[in-house]
Amino acid sequence: VTTTIDPLVGAIPLDLPAVERKFVLPGGFVAGATTCGIKDSGRPDLALIAVTGDPAPTAAVFTQNAFAAAPVAVSKAHLASEGTGSQGLASAVISTSGCANAATGAAGEADQIAIAEHLASTLGVPVGRILCLSTGIIGTRLPVDLVAAGIDRLVPAGLSSEPSGLEAAAEALRTTDSHAKVATTTVTLLDADGLAARSVRVTGIAKGVGMIHPSMATMLAILTTDADVDQDTLHGLLQGAATKTWNQLSIDGDTSTNDTVFLLASGAAGAARVAQRSPAAVTLGAAIEAVARDLARQQAADGEGAATLITCQVTGAADDRDARAVARSVVSSSLVKAAVHGRDPNWGRLAGAAGNANARLDPTRARIAIAGQVVYDGTRDGPVPFDRDAARAAMNAPEVLFRLDLGLGDGIGEAFGCDLTEEYVRENSEYTT
Amino acid sequence: VTTTIDPLVGAIPLDLPAVERKFVLPGGFVAGATTCGIKDSGRPDLALIAVTGDPAPTAAVFTQNAFAAAPVAVSKAHLASEGTGSQGLASAVISTSGCANAATGAAGEADQIAIAEHLASTLGVPVGRILCLSTGIIGTRLPVDLVAAGIDRLVPAGLSSEPSGLEAAAEALRTTDSHAKVATTTVTLLDADGLAARSVRVTGIAKGVGMIHPSMATMLAILTTDADVDQDTLHGLLQGAATKTWNQLSIDGDTSTNDTVFLLASGAAGAARVAQRSPAAVTLGAAIEAVARDLARQQAADGEGAATLITCQVTGAADDRDARAVARSVVSSSLVKAAVHGRDPNWGRLAGAAGNANARLDPTRARIAIAGQVVYDGTRDGPVPFDRDAARAAMNAPEVLFRLDLGLGDGIGEAFGCDLTEEYVRENSEYTT
Which positions of chain A have pLDDT values less than 70? Predict the structure, then answer.
């Protein structure tokens, strides 16, 4: 059968290093967590990652939401004190879960600053080097005294460079996530003379299984590396990775009030400083992207109520931006998500969602494949007979792959989502404020 | 309690004429329907509205979907023959339901043209004056012979200016709608000299309870009026009305491959020609908007699996465009929709969705009310204590009203949506192609 040897079949090869889901911190960092009492459940709710040496060049990506939370405003201001606001220097990241500290006005911002000041004086660093994350219910205040007491218990006795410290921190980030999320990789960076090679590590932890979930949970991630990188280069690498990974992740279609990703570089690996646009920057960027991509995929697979990770890969777009837009539109469509839940190879919904992406798309040149079978070929008048039972069976899996080739150019891109289930509706309608 | 006299409470007053949900055609039109056999169910699937006199100036709004269906392409081409493509002259609108004729390539377009040609020769009009609508499953072909036989049965014996003719046509448009949708109103237009007044009628029928539903159903509407209006003026009035009504309607967040609205003006009322930007144009525009708004609200209330119509009205925005964007973002949010299903006055989700609208918004000036109670006031540091039980009770209703005042300017706007239920997921996941 010709459809099985079509280039649409199979995933796009990506030139990224392999990752492991192991709790391994890069050199120069310690982590830990405690229970300070924000959550009624008594689960850990205070996480801390600290830099052991000089303050780390740091890059950040923040939510675009106009109702951005207090920790977002405070972190931007602190990064701006020795940088631009989306990059700067940091000594520690503190995360509280159970309360988003969003829509809490000036009082909420003062709470967040008080917590940062307490941590700064405990660590003996300027307050401008403290970054903040919060996640949980909107419109409630942080219990500043409880958080301060938690910091006193955690610093320094509760911080460790061992796997247990990072695992505790990842656990304490969680709200509705079913498990803590981690990804780590190592790459070898060549020095400027192209000779002396040194291995560096990139590790990320993340939480958030509702893309927006302003009453309960949002998307947070902390990436660390022991590479030696300046703010500017680091920011470019993080932006590039986020564009291809977290900005291509949709669970329920919105952007939360608290979404934040931090990337801190300790330089502790002893490798040469990574110069902008150097081969080492490309290698490190791939490592950052690999970690970000794996975390984003873990989040989609763990989407609220979801059973199936949806990956949509697009080739042949006019450019990469169009490819990403089409992929994102497909994984964001409620009807596509419901069809996946029903194991229904309903390619009309893929076509409709792709056509809705506001990207260059010509139905007479586009082709669509579901789980390895071509189902639509616009160059041959559209619908292609296919084995529906085989498609249904292939969709009854932890992951389903949709492939579209637009037949227009060299643009490629991918996006990640999950099926829409009755359980998602129940989780989000039965929850009461 | 101060919150009960807040201007946020209650709906925005709109200067629109009242509508009735009665099947009354304006003068100069006949309508009817038959069962030609596209649908397996044996339900009516062929609808026709025809102009009895000279061809009617006609305006159209089409889907922006890149996978636009054959009837969209054919209707655009026909309108272009004596107009611009989004306006022109028409003698009849033929609608087939059960097959979308989308993603069917050149063969599907030839099918649609053959049907238009058959109707044109039956009516004795140029084929360029036939407009087409189709709705139903994507990727299947129209049975041209069955449709042609249906046309032969319907013309002229099955067409009538009586209510039964329009009701039959509205019924035959339906796929997943639970009932046929109609709205009608009359307004009095002053002549150019401001004296001799004449009443004109605007009537619309619509179908579509999944905003995109490419395998089964899409949003279609046919509006008719017996006012005497040129193409240009008519197009301006329809665009203005659609911007405030159908473009503010979201059921599941996408734009379908077949969405089409037609507005035909017969001139049969004998009123003077409506001049562009005249007082009569304003009056007629309000009538068109009133009909469009009522149909859009009927569609939202009948949304797949939905139990509650969500209306979000926004005041105090920097401009109307921002107000509409915020309103649309609120009614489109899966989390807001699930909260309504759970009768949960979860205003954090409203704030999050509003902040995600890409509109000018300052959390310290915005205020939010749910079903008549202020729940967030940014000018007073945010959260406002409110009666949650009363809010829950008010949300347990066929319609819930959210009001946001942004405190920035005079912009107002509204949007319509529905709750997200387990039934929506079941309907859309258990359906199999």
Answer: 1-7, 192, 194-196, 209-218, 251-256, 431-433
Of B254, B344, B425, the CB nearest to A432: B344
Q: Which of A111, A291, A315 is nearest to A200 (CA)?
A: A291
Tell me what pLDDT residue A211 has: 44
Residue with tokens 């159970």: A98
- Chain A interface includes B104 (CB < 8 A): yes
Q: Who wins on pLDDT, A207 or B8?
A: A207
Tell me the two tokens of residue A166: 């990072």
The answer to whether B352 contacts A424, with C-beta atoms less than 8 Å apart, is no
Chain B contact for A339 (CB, 8 A cutoff): yes
Identify the residue with better confidence: A52 or B191. A52
Relative orientation angle of helices B422-430 and A422-430, to the nearest 10 degrees: 170
Do B420 and A432 count as a contact with CB atoms less than 8 A apart? no
**Which backbone phi and psi does B279 adopt, to 5 degrees?**
-55, -35
Tell me the mean pLDDT in the region B31-41: 94
Can you give the pLDDT at residue A433? Answer: 47
Chain A hits for B424, Cβ within 8 Å:
334, 338, 425
Q: Are B287 and B166 in contact (CB under 8 A)?
A: no
pLDDT at A195: 66
The amino acid at residue B18 is: A
Task: Provide the 8-state DSSP code for A271.
Answer: P
| Whether A254 contacts chain B with CB within 8 A | yes
Three-class SS of residue B329? helix
Position B171 pLDDT exceeds 90: yes
Q: Which residue of B has its CA nearest to A68?
A: B355
Compare all CA atoms of chain B with the CA of A105 and give the residue at the minimum distance.
Answer: B381
Q: Kindly tell me if the per-residue pLDDT of B51 is higher than 60.
A: yes
- Partners of A356 on chain B (C-beta within 8 Å) are 64-66, 212, 254-255
Report residue A338 as tokens.
Answer: 């419901």
Please name which of A332, A386, A382 lies closest in space to residue B137, comparing C-alpha atoms. Answer: A382
Q: Rounded distance, CA B372 to CA B390, Å?
A: 10
H/E stretch holding A317 reads strand A309-317
Here the tokens at position B381 are 């540091």
Q: Is B315 exposed, middle or buried (0-12, 13-18, 19+ CB in 10 A)?
A: buried
Query: A137: nearest CA in chain B?
Result: B348
DSSP conformation letters of A160-199 = BSSHHHHHHHHHHH-SS-SS-EEEEEEEEEE-TTS--EEE
> In B293-362, which ranges are E strands?
309-317
Three-state DSSP class for residue B392 = helix
Q: What is the reported pLDDT for B332?
A: 86
**pLDDT grade, residue B252 (50/70/90)?**
low
pLDDT digits (tens, 9 = 90+) for B394-428: 998 999 999 999 999 999 999 888 888 888 788 77
Q: Which residue of A has its CA nearest to B430?
A: A342
Q: Is B433 an interface residue toward A (CB < 8 Å)? A: yes
Say yes or no for a CB contact (<8 Å) between A139 and B64: no
Give the whole-number percent of chain B exceeding pLDDT 90. Answer: 50
Residues 402-421 of A with CB under 8 A from B: 419-421
pTM of the model: 0.83
φ and ψ at A397, to 5 degrees? -145, 165
Predicted local confidence at residue B301, as pLDDT: 84
Specify the residue for token string 């003077």. Answer: B272
User: What pLDDT, on the 0 to 100 scale, is given for residue A217?
Assistant: 38
Residues of B recognised as catalytic:
218
Using DSSP's 3-state secondary structure scheme, residue B37 falls into: coil
pLDDT tens by residue, B137-166 = 888 899 999 999 999 999 999 999 999 999
Whether the pLDDT of residue B262 is over 90: the answer is no
Contact B344 A431 (CB under 8 A): yes
Under 8 Å CB pairs connecting chains A and B tally to 257
